[in-house]
TrEMBL record:
Gene Ontology molecular-function annotations: carbon-sulfur lyase activity; metal ion binding
Domain of life per record: Bacteria
Database matches in PROSITE patterns: CENP_V_GFA (PS51891)
Domain CENP-V/GFA: 3-125
Protein name, per record: CENP-V/GFA domain-containing protein
InterPro entries (UniProt xref): CENP-V/GFA, Mss4-like_sf
Organism: Pseudorhodoferax soli
Keyword terms, alphabetized: Lyase, Metal-binding, Zinc
ATP-binding found in the keyword field: no
Similarity-based family: Belongs to the Gfa family.
């Protein structure tokens, strides 16, 4: 599916192909929460980095978070969070560890997205105390990273429907 996205002020617009554009995973980590805002979480999609086309590149800025773990030295994340330098809208994350993938923020997508059959709530061990984890009964919840990949989640739900995505 072709996804069209933009920042709030319209300075940056982008398009990207996503094989399964279902916004199902809500990340509650402190980095997503503080850089993307929302309900105390961010929702990222998976897309083909080779198809990303950007207009307004001069307004793009990148942020690489500092990873802090107790008892370990601080280190810079390899993940590059792209945002608009004019309005601050979070747009996508790209990480050279997985160069074929780009993760647009669902909040930046202008194309109508399908409603997921469930939401996976991840990194709940870093959720802010004020955040209430909302969702459907039976939604999978994880204190850290889930035991499945984005592709595996889509495959499992496609099989339930009897179709492939």
């Amino acid at each position: 599916m072709q996804l069209e996205g933009s920042c709030h002020c319209g300075s940056v617009k982008f398009s990207v192909e996503a094989p399964s554009p279902v916004p199902f995973m809500r990340c509650y980590c402190s980095i997503c929460r503080k850089t993307a805002g929302g309900g105390g979480y961010a929702i990222n999609l998976g897309a083909d980095a080779g198809t990303l086309k950007v207009r307004g590149k001069r307004y793009l800025r990148k942020y690489q978070a500092v990873m802090r773990e107790e008892g370990k030295p601080d280190r810079q994340s390899s993940g590059q969070r792209h945002f608009c330098g004019r309005c601050g809208s979070a747009l996508w994350l790209w990480d050279p560890t997985w160069p074929e993938l780009v993760h647009p923020h669902a909040s930046a997508i202008d194309t109508p997205l399908p409603v997921p059959p469930e939401n996976a709530h991840i990194l709940l061990d870093s959720k802010a105390d004020w955040v209430v984890v909302e969702g459907k009964r039976g939604d999978p919840r994880f204190d850290s990273y889930p035991d499945f990949s984005l592709a595996e989640w889509h495959e499992r739900h496609a099989k339930k429907k009897g179709t492939r995505r």
